[in-house]
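Handout for the seminar on molecular recognition.
Each group receives one record of this type.
Step one: identify the two inputs.
Step two: read the structure output and locate the region that could contact nicotinamide-adenine-dinucleotide.
Step three: write two sentences on what you found, then compare them with the reference statements printed after the record.
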Amino acid sequence: MEKIKIGIIGCGNISNAYFNASKKFEIIEVKSCADINSEAAAAKAEEHGVSAVTVDEMLADPEIEIVINLTIPKAHVEVSMKCLEAGKHVHLEKPLGINYEEGRKLVEFAKSKGLLIGCAPDTFLGGGQQTCRKLIDDGWIGRPIAGTAIMMGRGPEPWHPNPGFFYEEGGGPMLDMGPYYMTALVNMLGPAKSIRGFAVRSFDERVAGHESIKGKKIPVMVPTHYSGSIEFHSGAIISVIISFDVYGHHHKPIEIYGTNGSLTVPDPNTFGGEVQVKVARNDWQNVGFTHGYTENMRSIGVADMACALRSGRKHRCSGELALHVLEIMTGFRKASENGGVYELETTCDKPAALPLGLMDGFLDSFQ
Ligand SMILES: NC(=O)c1ccc[n+]([C@@H]2O[C@H](COP(=O)([O-])OP(=O)(O)OC[C@H]3O[C@@H](n4cnc5c(N)ncnc54)[C@H](O)[C@@H]3O)[C@@H](O)[C@H]2O)c1
């Protein structure tokens, strides 16, 4: 099979995960990488045996079909637009944009150009989340009626060398961590209908802990504690807390409660994790994975886009899904500022579940 050639823009912290995992998929091959910091691009090129180029050189290369955009959130839309203008399909890191309006423009622009746009997270294609999806689809817990999605921590400033952006517009726990949780929920439950929510800024400033900036005060410009509920079109109501303000807790990342039982869903920022199910009044049982890809497989969404390009089927980490997720996340703040309720205008299809029994390195069973 002819491989689809990939270019990576943004050679920072997360790029190694993409360089490494992309080697595991038969259909894609990273050809080149670029960064506004040319030294960063050169270092990754050497480490991974690809070419270091400028962004313009990459976009002028007719062999490159898909660009993976791993720049910082504030640059996501601008860099992705440039790639689309050059006729490239784009898969970008989360979030799709730092506000709903710019995310929508990006998805509409891709559509108008007849190009595919996709967005992280692709963790929902991992064995942990796919096993949960299968348990729900097969009716083990009955009809999902309620659940919880909880991510609480005290923020990244104790260890991060440059934590300021987490507390600027475009930062905060919802845009940083929310994509994993909201995407996992939509994958299992389908599209959401409305948000009831609060978004609060509990502290005026935070204090950096990293050696290089220890004690530095960081102004907080965005809400850091989100709480509320999401109403899904299916009727399920999920209680949500996403916070950088909490030192500790004992909640599981996600639980789904159905008419016939309960399901414990692993951390959606991982590909594997522990899946447990409780059917009616029986004891909790550990469930083995029904699907593979349980290690860090960041780029599986790109491989899925490549398969979609070749076969004409839909890709799973779609712009439509990412835009719906972005609207859910930003909807909490809008709800909080506007009397507590936000009705969503977007919807999306549930991404197709991965087939059972896939060969390692493949995403379609017919290959
Ligand atoms: N670091 C993580 O653990 C992690 C995990 C999952 C997702 N992400 C997401 O991945 C993205 C990147 O995160 P990171 O931690 O790798 O950040 P980073 O700051 O380490 O790397 C970003 C890179 O993008 C480059 N860049 C910025 N603007 C650019 C532009 N306009 N053109 C070309 N290059 C540009 C920077 O020079 C830098 O090398 C973010 O959206 C983040 O939310 C990060």
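Reference statements: The two ends are 9 Å apart (CA to CA). The chain has a mean pLDDT of 97.
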